[in-house]
Amino acid sequence: MIVEITTPDKEIFSGNASMVNLPGVDGSFGILENHANMVAALKRGTIKLISEGETFFFEINGGVVEVLRNKVSILA
Predict the structure, then answer these.
(1) Between β-strands 2-6 and 71-75, what pairing exists: parallel, antiparallel or unpaired?
(2) Which domains are present in the chain?
(3) Distance of CA 55 to the CA centre of its chain
(4) Contact 66, 3 (CB under 8 A)
(5) Which residues of the chain have pLDDT under 50?
(6) Is 31 in contact with 13 (CB distance < 8 Å)?
């Protein structure tokens, strides 16, 4: 699936990922390939992303995630 993480200043990640774990307002949740379409609010915390066997961590102060047709767009 395609993942894009964008802040007001710049795009900090854009590429393929096999898993994304996000700090949701109602608790952490994960997104895998072919996840159902959704929109959710994010709170301050850490995004964990696995891409090509490598794990990345991004600290955010909150934001919104949209999952639509195997594309995950995170505005943080």
Answers:
(1) parallel
(2) 2-75 (2.60.15.10)
(3) 13
(4) no
(5) none
(6) no
